[in-house]
Amino acid sequence: MEEIKICLKKPDDVKEFVRAARKCEFDVDLAYNSAVVDGKSILGVFALGLEKPLVVSCHGENREFQRSIQKFQL
User: Fold this and answer.
1) What CA–CA distance (Å, rounded) separates 27 from 49?
2) Quick one: which of 3, 6, 30, 32 has the fewest CB in 10 Å?
3) Is 18 helix (H, G, I), strand (E, B) or coil?
4) What is the pTM for the complete model shown?
């Protein structure tokens, strides 16, 4: 399992992240402190809030997904 630290600053960033996560055939989790949500759920990601350091946990590997979220990395 790979973990990537990111920050989503605008609503469009959240939409882009979720769109990319939904293309993955494996689970993508997003965490802030002790809260963990499904990275494919736009409502879940918005519930974590914007402009916070988030940790993406990928339960598989997809280079296209990694490339598409690279601009959000901290």
Assistant:
1) 20
2) 3
3) helix
4) 0.93
Residue 67: strand, helix, or coil? helix
Determine the straight-line distance between the first and last CA of the chain, rounded to whole angstroms: 19
Compute the distance between CA of residue 52 and CA of residue 6 in angstroms, rounded to an integer: 8
What average pLDDT does range 23-50 have in this prediction?
96
Share of the chain above pLDDT 70, in %: 100
8, with CB counted inside 10 A (0-12, 13-18, 19+), is buried
- DSSP track, 19-53: HHHHT-SS-EEEEETTEEEETT-HHHHHHH-SSSE
| The residue count for the chain | 74
Measured CA to CA, the distance from residue 29 to residue 63 in angstroms comes to 17
At 72, list the tokens.
């959000």
